[in-house]
Amino acid sequence: MSKKFNSTEIRDFLTPQKKPAFMESCNVDAWTQTMGDIAMVKVDELCCKMIGALRGIHTWYHTAHVLAKGTGFAGDHVHLYGEIYNEITDQLDGTMEKILGLLNEESLICPRKITSHSLELLEMYDGPSDKSGHEIAQIALQIEKDFLTAMEILYKVAKAHEMMTLGLEDFIAGLANTHERYVYLLQQRVKSNRD
Ligand SMILES: [Fe+2]
Description:
This protein is mainly alpha-helical. Helix content is 71%, strand content 0%. The model has no long low-confidence stretch (mean pLDDT 86).
């Protein structure tokens, strides 16, 4: 006999434990209250926020690349923040093209909206200036964990709206896989006390 789930179990399954603050203005709390609320989330607005968030993360890493310092300077400058910010340039390109391809809504690829959401994200985290190499990596690690949660939300909202395609699923999973790798790199970097 198949198991029957109640609405609380379904909600718990669909809702990540911890949501990044930058998603809150999208009324995440409201849509997590009932299954019906998930359908209320505007997918196009969420996609626009994701582009802005990624742009903000890109700017953050670019400045971290320049502001890397201390004994880990060479590795941080070139192979950690340097490689990540360059990779995110391509991720941004792919994300914007994917969203435009699926939704065909050109107003979502608006530089003003993207910059505005980008600032929203950047205001949530300390910048890398006047921080030690260890502190910079700690902030980056938190950004990555939050971004993975945000992608989980996007995935679930897209499914709830029945707009998930094989290609979108692959795209989100691929992006998440790459950022999970960043989590690994940063987790190792913050273990400075084991130098
Ligand atoms: Fe550079």
